[in-house]
Amino acid sequence: MNKKVPKHIAIIMDGNGRWAKSKGQPRIFGHKAGMKVIKNILIEAKELGIKYLTLYAFSTENWKRPEDEVKGLMFLLKEYLKKERKDLNKNNVKLKFLGRRDNVSKDVLKLMDETVEFLDKNDGITLNIAFNYGGRQEIIDAVNKLLLEKKEKITEEDIQKKLYGGPELPDPELVIRTSGEFRISNFLLWEIAYSEFYITNTLWPDFSIKEFRIAILDYMKRERRFGGLSNDK
């Protein structure tokens, strides 16, 4: 337990639909319940000294979902930004969106940009919302930016600088996935090369501060070797 709390935690918030179905409710009911969990986890992360929290909110593949569900998710994002803006500012939260802007409606983009600007001067925890995000797409976009600069040889550092989070966003030390699924789901493919994973069967709307702490404690007990040998070898 002598290791530090991770600087950057990424979460795949999975299980909203199954949670709603178990209660005889439409899927959007689960997404709405999941939004309430975000606030609790964000504040707890800030209290623990975590500097970056990245949440997988909407993937590029999620456009394939039923139209009603997609519209509901867009509405919930707008509601979150409108209702939580003041509290985010009060808690010194900086906000960033990771992902592409195409296919997103102008009113959603406008609210996203306004909220990011409103919180821009905050220097506490940074909340990264992966929205209209895909890991493969992120790498493609980074390479295409470098090609426009007529780079003759591309290094890892070059790609890192062109990722959505920019060079200032460190790779996540810990990735948490709820609902018991053992998939990466096209999330932060470049950034999680040496991240530690914590998988829980808990569905996201039931994910508690207690389990968040358990995940962090589990991480802190691990030895990160980055391809090398353990200290006792």
From TrEMBL:
PANTHER family: DEHYDRODOLICHYL DIPHOSPHATE SYNTHASE 2, DEHYDRODOLICHYL DIPHOSPHATE SYNTHASE FAMILY MEMBER. Binds 2 magnesium ions per subunit. This is Isoprenyl transferase. Homodimer. Mg(2+) binds at residues 14, 196. InterPro entries: UPP_synth-like, UPP_synth-like_CS, UPP_synth-like_sf. One of its GO terms (molecular function) is magnesium ion binding. SUPFAM superfamilies: Undecaprenyl diphosphate synthase (SSF64005). It is an enzyme of class 2 (transferase). Its EC number is 2.5.1.-. It comes from the Bacteria. Keywords: Magnesium, Metal-binding, Transferase. NCBIfam families: PRK14830.1, uppS.
